[in-house]
Structures are given as C-alpha cells and as structure tokens.
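Summary for the steering committee. One of the milestones for this cycle was to obtain a three-dimensional model of the protein with manganese (II) ion bound, which we needed before selecting residues for the alanine scan. The sequence and ligand used are listed below.
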Amino acid sequence: MYQVKAQGRNSFRFFSPDMNKRSIKRLEMENNLRYAIERGELFLEYQPQVNVQNRQLFGVESLIRWQQPELGLIRPDQFIRMAEETGLILPIGNWVMKEAFTQNVKWSRDLNANITTAVNISALQFMQKSFVDEVKELIDVTGVNPKNIELELTESLLMESGQKTDTTLEKLKSIGLQLAIDDFGTGYSSLSYLKHLPIDRLKVDRSFIKDMEEDTDSTAITNAIIAMAKSLKLHVIAEGVENKAQLGILQDLGCNEIQGYLFGKPERPEYVESRFNTTYDI
Ligand code: G
Ligand code: G
Ligand code: MN
C-alpha cells in the first residue's frame, strides 16, 4: 500500500518478496523508534550560526540523531518521515524541544552564553491544537528564556496559512519566541504572506548556495531573497556554506548570517560550546 501511495495513489502493485523484506525492515524500524526515547537513544547535535561581521557565534541549530544499538547512527532523513507518517514525531518533537531548551538554559547559566537555539518543527506538531500550550509548558518546566529559542517552520506549512496558522504564529510570537522559515526558496511561496506573518528570519535553502559559484541564476535568486528580507526587516541566514568563495559572494550580497560546514558541522554540545566567546578567523 505504501508503495502505491508513494507513486500517486489509485493504483495497484503486486506483492513481491522484496517488498516483504522492505516492509519487515520498516516495521522493525518503526517499532525500534517507538522505544528510542525511553531507551535514551536519541540525542541532539548543534550547528553553529555565525555573524560574519564580528565572526562570532550567535546561535545554533539543533539536529536530531538516533544511535540505534544494532544499526548504528541513523540520520534524520532516514527516520523523520516515518516518524511523521506514524505520528511518532509528536513525542519525539516534544523530547527535542525539552532537550534543546534544557541545553540552552545550561549554556546561559553555566557559561553565561546568551545564544539562540533553533529547533526544527514538523507540520504535524505545529498543527496540533495543543502545540502552543505544550511549548509554554516546556518553557516553564525548563526555565528557558523564550527569546533564546527559534522555531524553524517550513515554507509549505506557512503557505497553508489559514486563520488557524496565523493565530498559532501570533500566539508563539507573543510568548516571545523567534520564528524562522526553513529551506526558504524551495516552496511555492506567494510572497505576500511574508508581509503579514510574524516571522523573524529567512533561511536561504542550501541548494542555492551550493550552485552559486557556477550558476548565476542561483546567485540572482539568493540576491533577491537577501534584498527582500532586508526590505522587510527580516534577518536572513545562508545555509550550507562550505567554502570561502561562497562566503565572499554572500558578503558581497549583504548577507550577515552564515551556517554551514565552513564554520562548523553539527556537533555534540560539549564541542560546540568551545566556540562560544571565540572569534572565527575565517
Ligand atoms: O543534519 P541533517 O542530516 O541532520 O538533517 C536532515 C533533515 O532533518 C533536515 O532537513 C532537518 O530539518 C531535519 N531535522 C533534523 N532534526 C530535526 C528535528 O528535531 N525535528 C524535525 N522535525 N526535523 C529535523
Ligand atoms: O533542512 P534543514 O535546514 O533543517 O537541514 C539542515 C541540513 O543541512 C542538515 O542535514 C545539515 O547537516 C546539513 N548541512 C548543514 N550545513 C551543511 C553544509 O555546509 N553542507 C552540506 N552538504 N550540508 C549541510
Ligand atoms: Mn532546519
């Protein structure tokens, strides 16, 4: 059934032993994921976000990883979709927020570091009636400063922006959280929504940055996104910056915030915190 659905529904496929293997593997994985939280197999890595003007780290993005005893380290592209399809993303997403908020509190309390932690939010989480209350409760329980937390939402989620989406965004904003649009430029945006949504930051999708050096169209799009963000008084961060050539182009285009392997891969918190209060000499 999943195979048919993946190819556009209203069709059929004959069962094959190969499929059987795959569906058994899938079921096993799903079952394992179900217990991953209580077994302590999930953890977060954090990737630096750097201000290019002062070369200081101002924030991190939290990225989930799953250390599975038999299969080893599993990256999110291999389990987030399944977690969304099965609804497991709800308890997992809650765990991620709690963990990320708690880490942010440790950093500000123990290291006096006032940095932003960005958290990826799935559409299914955001759409829950209880989402805002859940976030509020986690803020209370962990004691995190909501100004230090940024929720990353996808463009497609925001595009479905009915009244309910707008109200949820307003509520999250009134709690004091920051809001970002992830993978910006890849969805089918009606750009007029940017004007009325309470968004703080656009994250330029990695695909544009990757091609900038050879492809003048990518540079043109990136340029347009940066210019638009500025005129709407939004922060704009480039994702997936891997080398100095890309950094140079982005600086010329007036982009002040950078995330990517050039400044650091996603790493364990103990490693990332060695970057606080230092200046990158890149
Ligand atoms: O670094 P990377 O392979 O970690 O991340 C791959 C994808 O998984 C990214 O698109 C990212 O948005 C998504 N992702 C990473 N962590 C989380 C998370 O905690 N929640 C959700 N919903 N998605 C995540
Ligand atoms: O979709 P989202 O932006 O949340 O996911 C970020 C993804 O991009 C993660 O998988 C992260 O590991 C990856 N990433 C971050 N920086 C770089 C980079 O400089 N190069 C590449 N290839 N991937 C990156
Ligand atoms: Mn993200």
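Key point for the committee: The longest helix spans residues 89-110.
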